[in-house]
Amino acid sequence: MDIKVNVRESSDDAYVVELGGEIDVYTSPKVKDAITELIDQGHYNLVINLEKVRYIDSTGLGVLIGGLKRVREHGGSVNLVCTNPQIKKIFDITGLVKIFGIYDDEAGAQKALA
Amino acid sequence: MPEPATGDKYFGTVDLRIPGKPEWVAVARLTIAAIANRLPFTVEEIEDLKLAIAEACTNAIQAGGGNGEPIDIRCETAADHLRIVVRDRGTKKPEPVPAGKATPVEGLGVFLIQALMDGVEHSFDAARGSELIMTKRVGS
After folding, report:
1. What residues in B contact A22, CB-CB < 8 Å?
2. What residue of A is the nearest CA neighbor of B114?
3. The domain that contains A27 carries what CATH number?
4. Record: contact B23-A24, CB cut-off 8 A
5. B46-72 pLDDT per residue, tens
6. Which of A33, A69, B1, B103 is buried deepest, with most CB atoms within 10 A?
7. CA pair distance B103, B100, nearest whole angstrom
8. The complex's ipTM?
9. Domain count within chain B
């Protein structure tokens, strides 16, 4: 069980949170900490890249929803990068496709933030 | 459930007990994947099962207050389905299952279980804890 979290600033005044591995009840606190730290620092436009995520459960979805709620309070947004069919299916059946912008690549997700 | 034929190569029962702690949920998930792999499930169906068992274990951990009370998992296999029974010793009654599409965080796990599995039954006893029975049919 592993989770990799890599945070970097993009060229468009947004931050990219690149995640890799499995996001579940054990690993999601690490993801939450990374997102919370960015928001606490005043960064409200985020791209969360799920391309290297093999698995996500409801606790991981909860972290993403929590992050989205917080940035929206400041007029910000969270866009996701995801092409994994199984993960996209989870966003679909939970209805979360309607509240997150989900893109095939980082460039598209960043462009949509602007 | 139909009775499996004698000698059915798919028929079997596996019991697993894990500590009710987050770091053990992956063990349940991988075990279910290994068991499901013995049946003619598709890769997508196995992913559904992995998510469902993880959600069930997460609920069990929360019901137990995260104090590590063991979670008992029984897997019963047949040629056309996998039946999973998850028992915890939590005394906290689970949240009611939300109706319709889920968007709030609360209840999302239960919603996913219901969406991904073909049959879900739940019972709660304040003295003994919860029992969740999930069934997934091959080809569903």
Report:
1. 26
2. A93
3. 3.30.750.24
4. no
5. 999 999 999 999 999 988 777 789 999
6. B103
7. 10
8. 0.90
9. 1
